């Protein structure tokens, strides 16, 4: 029997299994500090002005990520519960807001005994594994294979933190190439990296090995790629792939500091783009997309695609020059909004667009809802699995959710974002009329009812989830400071 016939038989078997209610497999791919505009499937939903903020035609093609969106669902308003690594990741795996996980700031260890979606799936008979960056075990760096597994039975390749560009196996165990532990640096020339040792490729290869081992199912595998987080650098040929692109300054980089919210102004403001850094960022994204393609090919070749839920997302965004900022930590879209696409051919209609505001706290309950698994008692997030399983091609909702970090909190729905801070009066952005987030509508009488609804719901949720800024009484509000 040739390979084509074998593949057809395998696919037919998978479809039959899905129809009979076989447990779905799960593959999660999470990146780090990933700007949603670098995915073609997100650009396709925007105006040209918004899709190409760095200049007309300045883009990286992502055919494999776009395939996931085309064959599944894409979320247009998915936010980090707190747009930095540790708290967002803690929220993602538990369904709780970061303060309840014990990890509301970077490098804080998640509390012992926290239940995660992997805990539930492991108890349900799944083979569970985690590969790549974890950042929930405190200060350990790199911290491979931490003893606390949180439901991920195979965590050999779980790496607590660090953005090392080259990894290898030594005596069967992962290691950072050229690591100088006492200085926490890596002596590794990324321009000499190969598809075997460049971190993104290395971790994807380990994931393929685990999928091969566990493909008899059911399996739950999470791959957490440390890129495209800085330092920006990528192996050949991706390091020169975008050398011909010139990145123009985003419109929002031209804004005067005097007109910016006080919570957005600090010493990290920039007034120009580093062309090489931007080109390398695109190269890292392209390398990620190609490796996603390897994983999808494995599922296809093994007849697993039909009944495997594939999720692609990130922990937070990267401003990449917008609002004169890089990196994250801000309520602005490019920092707080994350890409989120999910494909499950057996159950999720292809081409679905979900216009509902979610945060990472909603991921675990919604995922468990999709999989028909038991819910974790007391989670903060919403189980909105019905939105993904419905026959509706477009899901509309005015749901308000909230996110927080440091000195600000924000309520957000599919159109509006309302920011309260410890530094000044409220800001309201109308994302439909002002997608660049430049105009404060909070004192505009036209938006009085919107301000009232957003603040009322924000305060309610802050009370419910014991938001520290509210309890400390240090945020300004439209109602208390008219």
Word description of this protein:
With 482 residues, the chain is α/β, with parallel strands linked by helices. It has two domains: 3-397, Alkaline Phosphatase, subunit A (3-Layer(aba) Sandwich); 403-482, Arylsulfatase, C-terminal domain, CATH 3.30.1120.10. Helix content is 29%, strand content 18%. It has 14 helices and 17 strands. The strands form four sheets. A nine-stranded mixed β-sheet has the order 4-3-9-1-10-11-2-12-13, sandwiched between helices. The chain has a four-stranded antiparallel β-sheet with strand order 14-15-16-17, with helices on one face. A hairpin with a 2-residue loop joins β14 and β15.
Helix content: 25-40%
Mean pLDDT: 93
Give the CATH superfamily of the largest domain.
Alkaline Phosphatase, subunit A
Placed side by side, the strands forming the largest sheet appear as 4-3-9-1-10-11-2-12-13
What is the CATH top level name of the largest domain?
Alpha Beta
The CATH topology of the largest domain comes to Alkaline Phosphatase, subunit A
Low-confidence stretches: 1-20
> From the 3D coordinates, which CATH architecture of the largest domain would you assign?
3-Layer(aba) Sandwich
Largest sheet: 9 strands, mixed
Total individual domains: 2
Indicate the overall shape: globular
Rg (C-alpha, Å): 22 Å
Structural class, by secondary structure, is alpha/beta
């Amino acid at each position: 029997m040739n390979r084509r016939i074998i593949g057809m038989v395998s696919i037919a078997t998978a479809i039959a299994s899905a129809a009979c209610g076989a447990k779905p497999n799960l593959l999660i791919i999470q990146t780090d500090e990933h700007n949603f505009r670098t995915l073609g499937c997100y650009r396709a939903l925007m105006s040209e002005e918004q899709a190409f903020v760095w200049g007309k035609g300045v883009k990286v093609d992502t055919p494999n990520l776009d395939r996931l969106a085309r064959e599944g669902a894409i979320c247009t308003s998915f936010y980090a519960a707190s747009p930095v690594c540790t708290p967002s990741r803690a929220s993602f795996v538990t369904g709780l807001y970061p303060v309840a996980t014990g990890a509301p700031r970077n490098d804080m260890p998640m509390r012992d005994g926290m239940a995660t979606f992997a805990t539930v799936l492991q108890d349900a008979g799944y083979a569970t594994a985690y590969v790549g960056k974890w950042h929930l075990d405190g200060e350990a760096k790199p911290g491979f294979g931490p003893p606390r597994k949180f439901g991920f039975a195979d965590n050999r390749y779980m790496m607590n933190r660090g953005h090392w560009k080259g990894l290898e196996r030594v005596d069967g165990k992962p290691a950072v190439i050229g690591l100088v532990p006492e200085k926490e640096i890596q002596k590794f020339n990324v321009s000499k990296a190969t598809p075997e040792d460049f971190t993104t490729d290395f971790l994807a290869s380990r994931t393929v090995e685990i999928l091969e081992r566990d493909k008899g199912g059911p399996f739950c595998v999470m791959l957490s790629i440390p890129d495209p987080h800085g330092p920006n650098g990528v192996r050949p040929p991706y390091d020169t792939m975008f050398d011909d692109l010139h990145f123009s300054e985003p419109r929002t980089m031209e804004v005067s500091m005097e007109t910016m919210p006080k919570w957005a102004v600090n010493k990290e403001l920039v007034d120009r783009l580093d062309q090489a850094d931007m080109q390398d960022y695109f190269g890292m994204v392209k390398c990620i997309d190609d490796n996603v393609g390897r994983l999808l090919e494995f599922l296809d070749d093994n007849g697993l695609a039909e009944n495997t839920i594939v999720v692609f997302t990130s922990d937070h965004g990267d401003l990449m020059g917008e609002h004169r900022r890089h990196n994250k930590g801000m309520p602005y879209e490019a920092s707080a909004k994350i890409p989120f696409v999910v494909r499950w051919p057996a159950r999720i209609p292809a081409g679905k667009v979900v216009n509902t505001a979610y945060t990472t706290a909603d991921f675990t309950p919604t995922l468990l809802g999709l999989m028909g698994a038991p819910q974790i008692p007391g989670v903060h997030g919403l189980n909105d699995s019905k939105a993904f399983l419905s026959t509706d091609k477009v899901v509309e909702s005015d749901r308000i959710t909230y996110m927080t970090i440091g000195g600000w909190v924000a309520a957000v729905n599919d159109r509006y974002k309302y920011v309260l801070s410890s530094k000044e009066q409220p800001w309201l952005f109308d994302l439909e009329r002002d997608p660049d987030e430049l105009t404060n509508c909070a004192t505009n009488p036209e938006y009085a009812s919107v301000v009232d609804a957003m603040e009322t719901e924000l305060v309610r949720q802050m009370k419910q989830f014991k938001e520290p800024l509210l309890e400390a009484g240090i945020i300004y509000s439209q109602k208390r400071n008219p």
